[in-house]
Amino acid sequence: MTGPSATRLTRLLEAVLGVGTDLGLPGTLQRIVDGAAELTGAASATLAAADPGRDGFTEIRAVRRPGAAAEAAHRLRVPIHVHDEEFGELLLAGRPGGGPFTAEDEHLLRVLAAHAGIAIGNARLYGAARQRERWIEGAAAVTTALLTGESADDALMTVAERARILADAAAGVILQPTDEGGMEIVTASTLEDPGGIVGTTIAPGSAVLEQLLSGEPVFIADSATDPRMTTHVRHRFGPSMMLPLRSGGRLIGTLALPRRRGGRPYTAVERLLAGQFASQAALALVLADAAHRRERLAVHEDRDRIARDLHDLVVQRLFATGMTLESTRRRPGAEEVGDILGRAVEELRSTVQEVRTAIFALQQHPAGPPTGLRARVLRETACAAARLGHTPSTHFTGAVDSLVPDRVGDRLLAALRRGLAAAAGRVEVTVDATARLADGRDGVRLTVHDDGPAGGGAGTTVTWEAPL
Prior knowledge:
Largest sheet: 6 strands, antiparallel
Oligomer: single chain
Distance between the termini: 114 Å
Strand content: 15-25%
Number of helices: 11
Strand order of the largest sheet: 7-6-5-10-9-8
Structural class: alpha+beta
């Protein structure tokens, strides 16, 4: 075969070879369109997707010269199949001189379309493999980051930010259930100002809420117009997917990945990979939380051990030394050093009380707020240490936690804050839950003694008391 037919066969071969040289789907599609236009001499060529949501694109165009619109009277449509699925349709328009497309044109295009279907299938497989690799790497990075000791808030932000990048989303959002039965956005990662996003709630009764709380994924075509979306930030976004963060039957929250308004829809592959990422991230969050709990337990156990050692060794030795000094003061002929021994005994008693206070503080759980009056008093004195330059000496008499009601304890703490605020020197705080008031009733007495600036002698004593 010679002449034009041989030339066209050469062009067909070049077009067939060209469509398979790009592993990426967008590049493959562009080569198909360009090859079709070149092969037939068409003024324009368009590849329209049969299912835009399947691969995330609508159409690919090629225009060979400005006169395409005027020469569009003659058209030729050729379908492209990938396996048994219709991928899309190749549309050509306009020929030089305005003539119609021939049977030979159609035959050549069908040969090109058959090879294009194979190339598209390969590009899909390559793209899915690359996407899967990226999501797996992202999930591994999140797991590593969460298990290195991040706080709970940082852990959620890590998940939201990594998912946003992997999904090419406008935002990565974490929602958690509220006490009222709704869900609230607690973390948001976005390239723009996240103001107004964090704190947004989905009220109970929302159509989408039941699915989220039951751990079902929700896929939204357009957040701004979907009637299930009720938040005031919905108008900012378009396609979105909301994925459960669920592990072992426990719902930690929901990962939402909205794209901008008008953004391309999520493909089935992206939905699948994002769902797998969310499951892995939820497991990592549970493991990280368990690791943090173990660390806190280890610290608590270590504090208990230190407290036991202080009690068993230090307090007993100090007590024994005090007893020895007390007996020495009572021996005949000890009158000359009686005052010195007396002061030494009092100092030892004060030291024993302070060590016991330290032991109690060590026995409090390091992660939680103070729960008893004793612990709350110690917190107030510790807070005053930064201003005073030293930690006030604190003494307790009686079972203050069980004897003093909460309402009285709150008033005592208010009085303590006032006393500490006015102090300027070394401070001694005493809380006596066995005090006898002037009217004979049982009560609690707070004493805050301040020895004045630099111990200059102009000390003051503030006393507060209340019946129990």
